[in-house]
Automatic annotation (TrEMBL):
Pfam families: AhpC-TSA. Residues 1-27 form the signal peptide. This is Peroxiredoxin. Residues 29-184 form the Thioredoxin domain. Coiled coil: none annotated. Keywords: Signal. GO terms for molecular function: antioxidant activity; oxidoreductase activity.
Length: 207
């Protein structure tokens, strides 16, 4: 077979394979629209449903302790402090782990809860999404990846925890905490000034 023809066939096959992959962009929740409802079990095996918190602001945080970007924000105390500040202002905080069971980063529910507790995490609930259904519905691509749902159930923020895309804890004081800023806007009755930002971190280890 001529080289050019062989290359064309390979390229065509690659394109077909790529096209067959599920598109997060097409399936993703969209800022300004209703946030997809879901029910997941927490690390104690109890069901938690997003719509049970209607009337409250809810932060969704995609997490994975195996990711250095997640460890940056937990080991430094930044994520626990952001959680505590939110919860002190009657915000619900749901940490979600969409890591597949087959991944080397996967932690059993009790181990995940222990890891977060050791780092003084104070999320309202820590939820298991091993099948990746909720992560795919929201288009969560990285850990961390942050989303905020307003009391009416509308998604009002999607993106990064802050403005400096690094795994260096030393960058945290210099960065703008987008989640804190968005929650401040909501508390003041203002539209979220930066409703969409570029999330950064490790890729979500989907099934």
């Amino acid at each position: 077979m001529p080289t050019l023809c062989r290359r064309s066939l390979i390229a065509s096959a690659a394109l077909m394979a790529f096209s067959a992959l599920p598109s997060l962009a097409q399936a993703s929740a969209t800022v300004g629209q209703r946030a997809p409802d879901f029910t997941l079990q927490d690390t104690a095996g109890q069901p938690v449903r997003l719509s049970d918190y209607k009337g409250k602001t809810v932060v969704l945080e995609w997490t994975n302790p195996g990711c250095p970007f997640v460890r940056k924000h937990y080991d430094s105390g930044n994520m626990p402090a952001t959680q505590k500040d939110a919860i002190d202002h009657a915000v619900v905080w749901l940490s979600i782990n969409s890591t597949a069971k087959a991944s080397g980063d996967y932690l059993q529910p009790a181990a995940l809860a222990h890891w977060l507790h050791e780092r003084k995490g104070v999320a309202t609930a820590v939820l298991m999404d091993e099948e990746g259904t909720v992560g795919q519905a929201y288009g969560a691509r990285t850990t961390p990846h942050m989303f905020i749902v307003n009391p009416e159930g509308t998604l009002v923020y999607a993106g990064a925890i802050d403005s400096i895309a690094s795994a260096r804890p030393a960058d945290i004081p210099k960065a703008t905490n987008y989640v804190k800023a968005a929650l401040a806007d909501l508390a003041a009755g203002r539209p979220v000034a930066q409703a969409v930002t570029q999330a950064y971190g490790c890729s979500v280890k989907y099934k």
